[in-house]
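Lab notebook, design round three. We kept the backbone fixed and only want residue identities now. Task for the bench partner: fill in a sequence for the structure below.
Input structure tokens:
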């Protein structure tokens, strides 16, 4: 049954939540894909009725427009599997309508089938293909031919919709896994720092108490050695806890954490780091964590593969965007390495950024270093709404 310009709100299913098995099960579920929408544009009521009756058996949602102007309004609000467009219409004809449909980003790939009853089909056909038509049929149309052509585009549309739904579920599952991993890291880091740190501190005090009451040089030397081992263990505990979840990221913010990580990297690897950082600004914690983890992965790749002697780090904060750029003077990266089997770290960075509507761009040529640019839309801490953290929250929402 055909409908005119009516909008129906889309309902998304419950997001992947806890426990983890529920998130995995949802990602594997086939999902429900809505019916495809078919737009029929013709100024003749009889033609509109005939086409509706002909295509009703396909079981899809038919929408009709009696003019090019009405068709454009519908195209602005809906995604169509295919558009059947009459060539000769008063006012805005089919060619002009198709050109404007193709000029909009949302509908530029929507298949358009022209219908005409005119005899000068050759000139019209060339003109139709020039403005982006995928087919050109003469009226009266052969029912079986039209239905088969429309059915093909409907199937392509449905397959694309299923693929997008599957990608969305997998992305929400990835967001859930990342969130769970960060929570576990934070929990373990605090447990190690608090519990094990307290035990080692108590042990250091006990050894000190014992050393003050001993007189024999050999025993005093032993207690001093034990004290040094305890000090070394305390440093190791701090290092492990910081590696799991740097306190500076939570206490001081992203800018300070990036500066600290660059200094630690330079101290550990000997690779000189030059930083140019924006003033500290309070950002959404989830965004800060994502950028920091991407930055850590970039530095890890530099240490493992780049053979660089210098790394330039620049972090900019604009009103609506965060941009992190890391450039090294190493051996560079080949195009095939960006998409090879061993590029899972690069894929992980891109997925992390994509969860917040951002992107990671990696460029480089062998022998001339590599440049990694990360851009993420900003949502200041305390702001309401925003798609940036919504994906992660949706992925962790209970079903």
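Proposed sequence:
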């Amino acid at each position: 049954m055909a409908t005119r310009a009516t909008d129906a709100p889309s309902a998304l299913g419950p997001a992947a939540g806890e426990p983890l098995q529920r998130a995995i099960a949802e990602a594997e579920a086939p999902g429900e894909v809505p019916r495809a929408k078919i737009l029929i544009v013709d100024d003749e009521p009889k033609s509109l009725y005939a086409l509706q009756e002909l295509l009703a058996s396909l079981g899809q949602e038919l929408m009709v427009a009696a003019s090019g102007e009405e068709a454009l309004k519908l195209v602005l609000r809906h995604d169509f599997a295919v558009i059947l467009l009459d060539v000769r219409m008063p006012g805005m004809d089919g060619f002009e309508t198709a050109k404007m449909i193709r000029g909009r980003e949302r509908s530029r790939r929507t298949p358009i089938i022209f219908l005409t009853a005119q005899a000068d089909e050759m000139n019209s056909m060339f003109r139709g293909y020039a403005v982006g038509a995928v087919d050109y049929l003469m009226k009266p149309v052969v029912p079986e031919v039209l239905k088969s052509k429309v059915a093909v585009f409907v199937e392509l549309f449905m397959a694309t919709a299923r693929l997008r739904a599957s990608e969305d579920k997998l992305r929400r599952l990835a967001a859930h896994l990342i969130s769970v991993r960060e929570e576990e890291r934070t929990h373990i880091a605090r447990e190690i720092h608090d519990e094990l740190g307290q035990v080692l501190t108590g042990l250091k005090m006990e050894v000190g108490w014992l050393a003050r009451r001993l007189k024999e040089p050999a025993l005093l030397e032993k207690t001093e050695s034990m004290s040094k081992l305890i000090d070394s263990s305390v440093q190791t505990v701090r290092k492990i806890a910081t590696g799991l979840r740097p306190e500076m990221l939570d206490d001081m913010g992203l800018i300070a954490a990036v500066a600290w990580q660059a200094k630690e990297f330079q101290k550990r690897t000997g690779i000189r780091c030059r930083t140019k950082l924006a003033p500290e600004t309070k950002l959404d914690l989830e965004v800060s964590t994502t950028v920091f983890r991407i930055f850590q992965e970039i530095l890890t790749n530099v240490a493992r593969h780049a053979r660089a002697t210098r790394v330039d780090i620049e972090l900019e904060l604009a009103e609506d965007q965060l941009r992190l750029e890391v450039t090294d003077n190493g051996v560079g990266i080949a195009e095939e390495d960006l998409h090879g089997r061993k590029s899972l770290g690069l894929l992980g960075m891109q997925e992390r950024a994509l969860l917040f509507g951002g992107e990671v761009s990696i460029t480089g040529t062998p022998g001339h270093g590599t440049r990694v640019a990360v851009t993420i839309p900003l949502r200041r801490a305390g702001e309401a709404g925003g798609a940036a953290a919504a994906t992660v929250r949706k992925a962790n929402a209970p079903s």
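Keep this in mind before ordering anything: The chain has 13 helices and eleven strands.
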